[in-house]
């Protein structure tokens, strides 16, 4: 599949999902507007991503030498990124604390969704979950970190799982434009990683920032 086919398929899925209304995340929206928008529970973005940002990431992923396995932290309400990654990688290993959202997806799979999913239910820093992922994956080509966004958890996600990514693979963070203290603190971690403040190495990040305050950042291992 090339980028145009993937974009068409994703647009079609996002627009026509039978019950998850709301489309992509509006790139011009602010966090406050999104909280107000979702508070009435009548809408849920099928994919919690800005279209131009996630398709920018797809282009980068299509350029990877190997696309066998990806580890994803955070499935989301409907699992839009999980579904997308299933088209790009042979195996998608997703860690998600909520079992209800994963159950819904498994049900959708029975209705014809691709079946190359592997799920680990529970917090990403749970020791059993961690060992199960490491034992099943051994080595992967990509790590997409989009689970809990507090500094300590996003940092421990990186510290625990980045070793799995092979040389030439990619490590990606979501929500990297701006931090909201105590709630979303990914941008600060990306800054610290790029300055060598975490493990003494200055990781060279690229940024796909095409919105007011969402954004994707990644580096190649
Ligand atoms: C922002 S959503 C992911 C959105 C998804 N990537 C998408 O674009 O559609 C974050 C998800 O991470 C899950 N989560 C939060 N903390 C977690 C943790 N410590 N371990 C695993 N999953 C977690 C939440 O339940 C939620 O489903």
TrEMBL record:
Protein name as catalogued: Methyltransferase family protein
Recorded superkingdom: Bacteria
Keyword set, alphabetical order: Methyltransferase, Transferase
Record-linked SUPFAM superfamilies: S-adenosyl-L-methionine-dependent methyltransferases
Lineage per the UniProt record: Bacteria, Pseudomonadati, Pseudomonadota, Gammaproteobacteria, Oceanospirillales
GO MF term list: methyltransferase activity
Organism: Marinomonas balearica
GO biological process, one term: methylation
């Amino acid at each position: 599949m090339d980028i145009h086919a993937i974009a068409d398929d994703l647009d079609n899925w996002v627009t026509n999902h039978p019950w998850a209304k709301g489309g992509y995340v509006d790139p011009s929206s602010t966090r406050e507007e999104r909280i107000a928008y979702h508070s009435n529970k009548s809408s849920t973005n099928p994919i919690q991503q800005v279209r131009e940002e996630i398709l920018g990431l797809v282009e980068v992923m299509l350029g990877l030498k190997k696309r066998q396995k990806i580890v994803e932290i955070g499935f989301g309400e409907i699992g839009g990124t999980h579904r997308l990654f299933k088209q790009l990688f042979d195996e998608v290993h997703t860690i998600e604390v909520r079992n209800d959202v994963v159950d819904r997806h498994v049900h959708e799979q029975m209705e014809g969704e691709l079946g190359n999913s592997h799920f680990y239910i529970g917090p990403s820093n749970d020791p059993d979950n961690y060992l199960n992922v490491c034992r099943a994956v051994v080595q992967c080509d990509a790590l997409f970190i989009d689970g809990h966004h507090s500094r300590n958890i996003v940092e421990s996600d990186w510290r625990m799982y980045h070793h799995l990514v092979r040389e030439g693979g990619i490590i990606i963070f979501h929500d990297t434009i701006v931090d909201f203290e105590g709630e979303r603190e990914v941008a600060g971690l990306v800054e610290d990683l790029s300055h060598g403040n975490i493990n003494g190495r200055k990781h060279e990040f690229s940024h796909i920032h095409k919105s007011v305050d969402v954004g994707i950042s990644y580096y190649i291992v």
